[in-house]
Amino acid sequence: MRPSTLRALNRAAELTRQNRLTEAMLIAEPVILTADFDESEEIRRWLVGHVTDFTGESHQDSKELP
Fold first, then answer.
1. Separation CA 60–CA 52 (nearest Å)
2. Record's superkingdom (predicted)?
């Protein structure tokens, strides 16, 4: 994944935790839409692996997730 994509995703996660979802989407959506196939797969894996970055919650076990 390109460093600029990772920075955008991290910033979007930070904004989401601050309840600034619209701004988060404005940052994340363009990099997601312009990603090629390989980077899209990396983004998908990153998003799945970093759910708590967006929620601010920490889950000890995936069974705790709804």
1. 11
2. Bacteria
Q: What is the pLDDT of residue 58?
A: 66
* 2: region left, alpha or beta (phi > 0 left; psi from -120 to 50 alpha): beta
- For residue 20, CA distances in Å to 10, 12, 17, 66 come to 13, 9, 7, 23
- How much is the mean pLDDT over the chain? 87
Q: What is the model's pLDDT at position 65?
A: 45
Q: Tell me the C-alpha distance between 44 and 9, whole Å.
A: 11
Q: Are 27 and 15 in contact (CB under 8 A)?
A: yes
Distance between CA atoms of residues 35 and 33, nearest Å:
6
Q: Is the pLDDT of residue 16 over 50?
A: yes
